[in-house]
Amino acid sequence: MQSDWIWGLVGGGLIGLAGAVLLLGNGRIMGASGILGGLLTKGGEATARIERLVFVACVIAVPALLHYGANVSVEAEVTSNLGLLLGAGLLVGLGTRLANGCTSGHGVCGISRLSLRGLLATILYIGAGAATVAVMRHLFGAFS
Amino acid sequence: MTRLIVAALSGGLFGAGLFLSGMTNPAKVQGFLDLSRAWDPTLIFVMGGALIPMAIAWQMTAGRVPLMGGQFPAPPRTEFDRKLILGSVLFGVGWGLVGLCPGPAIASLSYQGVSGALFFIAMLCGMQLSPHVSIQLDRSTANA
């Protein structure tokens, strides 16, 4: 659709603003995998833990409000293939924690401070993602 | 308390941005990663839109401290280690397989049903595996 890129830009702006608020306000980097992973690891200060919990709760709550409350519809069809879901979920969880960042941490927060690690990570996950989609499409005939 | 308000505001903006940008829709992410047919550039606009406020925020950190106290993050590390490379590739494969990365997986939990929940749980399990894989990688590096 023609308007998709406008919504992309608007949504992207809000994502960047979210990262700016967390950085300038609390001095934290807004990385989804780091914040979620931080909740899973034991120890650390209790206040940092509660901040992470509140952050994650609001990331869930606001789209829920928009979707159910304001009735904004969004197309979001996830595969129902159990093996794919579990395998991909494991890879995403393991990979982002090993690399210490995902699309928000390495991509948005890293590249914007000219971090070479962030840039390399982003090139690698986009490259690996594109290769995976190509293999699924041409070898297994997915998405057709 | 004010730190929690900052975390809530940031999480809310992040959730709204992910929702409105269309990035919780796996088809749009896989459409970006699939170079072979009608390419979907939305993700570029999301990234671009997010990088601008974030880059300004990093500029504003110079010579300042966070509004709520504490310290800004240390400058980014510069070394390209195996964890960064391997982790980013694994993440990219998982991202390509299902079209969800950690942020959108959290943001769409309320409306992506059982599939979204299964992916999320598998992702948490992958995150839990990461310290163990990390130790193995450290060991094999030490022996090399």
Automatic annotation (TrEMBL), chain A:
The keyword Transmembrane applies. The chain crosses the membrane at residues 6-25, 53-70, 82-99, 119-140. Keywords: Cell inner membrane, Cell membrane, Membrane, Transmembrane, Transmembrane helix, Transport. Its main location: membrane. It is found in: Cell inner membrane. The keyword Transmembrane helix applies. It is a multi-pass membrane protein. One of its GO terms (cellular component) is plasma membrane. Belongs to the TsuA/YedE (TC 9.B.102) family. This is YeeE/YedE family protein.
From TrEMBL, chain B:
The chain crosses the membrane at residues 42-63, 84-105, 111-129. Pfam families: DUF6691. Keywords: Membrane, Transmembrane, Transmembrane helix. InterPro entries: DUF6691 (IPR046513). This is Sulphur transport domain-containing protein. It comes from Tritonibacter litoralis. The lineage of its organism: Bacteria, Pseudomonadati, Pseudomonadota, Alphaproteobacteria, Rhodobacterales.
